[in-house]
Amino acid sequence: xxxxxxxxxxxxxxxxxxxxxxxxxxxxxxxxxxxxxxxxxxxxxxxxxxxxxxxxxxxxxxxxxxxxxxxxxxxxxxxxxxxxxxxxxxxxxxxxxxxxxxxxxxxxxxxxxxxxxxxxxxxxxxxxxxxxxxxxxxxxxxxxxxxxxxxxxxxxxxxxxxxxxxxxxxxxxxxxxxxxxxxxxxxxxxxxxxxxxxxxxxxxxxxxxxxxxxxxxxxxxxxxxxxxxxxxxxxxxxxxxxxxxxxxxxxxxxxxxxxxxxxxxxxxxxxxxxxxxxxxxxxxxxxxxxxxxxxxxxxxxxxxxxxxxxxxxxxxxxxxxxxxxxxxxxxxxxxxxxxxxxxxxxxxxxxxxxxxxxxxxxxxxxxxxxxxxxxxxxxxxxxxxxxxxxxxxxxxxxxxxxxxxxxxxxxxxxxxxxxxxxxxxxxxxxxxxxxxxxxxxxxxxxxxxxxxxxxxxxxxxxxxxxxxxxxxxxxxxxxxxxxxxxxxxxxxxxxxxxxxxxxxxxxxxxxxxxxxxxxxxxxxxxxxxxxxxxxxxxxxx
Length: 541
Fold this sequence. Notes:
Blueprint (H helix, E strand, L loop, with lengths): L3 E6 L1 E6 L5 H5 L1 H14 L7 E11 L2 E10 H9 L7 E11 L4 E7 L9 E2 L2 E2 L6 E2 L2 E2 L1 H13 L6 E3 L3 E6 L2 E10 L15 E8 L14 H16 L9 H6 L7 E2 L20 H25 L3 E8 L5 H8 L8 E5 L5 H4 L5 H5 L7 E5 L8 H4 L18 H18 L2 E9 L2 H13 L9 H7 L2 H15 L6 E5 L3 H17 L10 H21 L2
Parallel strand pairs: 2-4, 5-13, 16-18, 16-19, 17-18, 19-20
Antiparallel strand pairs: 1-12, 3-4, 3-5, 5-8, 6-7, 6-14, 9-10, 11-13, 12-13, 15-20
Helix pairs in contact: 2-3, 7-16, 8-16
């Protein structure tokens, strides 16, 4: 956990000066792509101008620093990518609204923001509107944010004489207690905010923060500081794992395809490593294994959702090894892998989705498809003669059959998601050269000889055709409710980082938890515990 330091100051001195931020300049293209991806998920996201700080100094009861203007897209990428440039900090004001009865007012961020659903005091990263005569006015920034988010103006509250500056990682939250004059005035006027969703309170049992010694109010100051820490770390107060979404996003969002734009397979690299080396990647893989095991146990216990994970890819793209690695440590009682081979005669006597339907995961389970119903739009399209084996009425085999199958698959996936099955689809995107090297590896290592088939070489000759068909599949079946992830697969370890991160982030979003025991059962448990303990004592000699 990042160390937290709290400084109490009475003055803030921030000069605003032009500065060419190397991070923003050198990674301009990556930042633009990242913001485009975020905007796809949150269309209302606006790339305005904001202010970030440099060279903070606490001295003589004051905080001094320099600030510079930059695009919000730069700040968002810097935050989402783990604050790679530590010479910069995000310094923002927070108004800790306190009512006459000691309750603090917080708000839930609206769905149109970059921090939707998270809970903070009124706050916001400063922007050029907060600059006056070349200096940043944090007090004015706080007043503006409070009014925008609650409807309260400075005449409705008394601002404290000092600021509690919470320093954590790459952020400094400058918090000031704002005492509302009366209990009735404490309730925000909802519906006026461009940021907030709804308001809530927590109470200060220790009484007034003002007028207390540093030692006496340390505990309360710590409680207030937690709101600032959550703002920078993207945590909700009661759910620490919410950090995972931001932490894993650099390994998820760039590879997600949900149909918002026309898909081109060639625009997706096969050798990407996400800025990681193999050692860093292996550490993330291990962390994701533990997270997945924890989420799977809760998924099983809650018995409401199910997860369907689909793997597709060319021969030797790493499907088998990815499944083995990512799901290592998951309880096999709640997880089942189905490998779809060439259809049997019985399967061919049914519709092309039938065998997949039989293998769908029950509630509380994870189902893993190693290949899937997509083979009937892939291999069958590359080899149209295989349609004859499906015994379809001739008049149904038209030039529209592939479009119709795409429509049927999307309808099927929508049906599943509407009934509680979350679908994640991974296309392991391998280069032809990497496939060649892996085939050679299978030939040279006796322990891998069994994986090689002469048919692999035959199909390799149709590489371009397979790539074109895969592009069509992803182009027509990528949807917001069942997205594809185009996984760079030339480096197996990075493919596992992407797949594991996408699965963990998705499970985290389901708010999984163990079933809560009702009071009546707890009372029964207590009685049973006493009986069992008494039974044990009776056996002792």
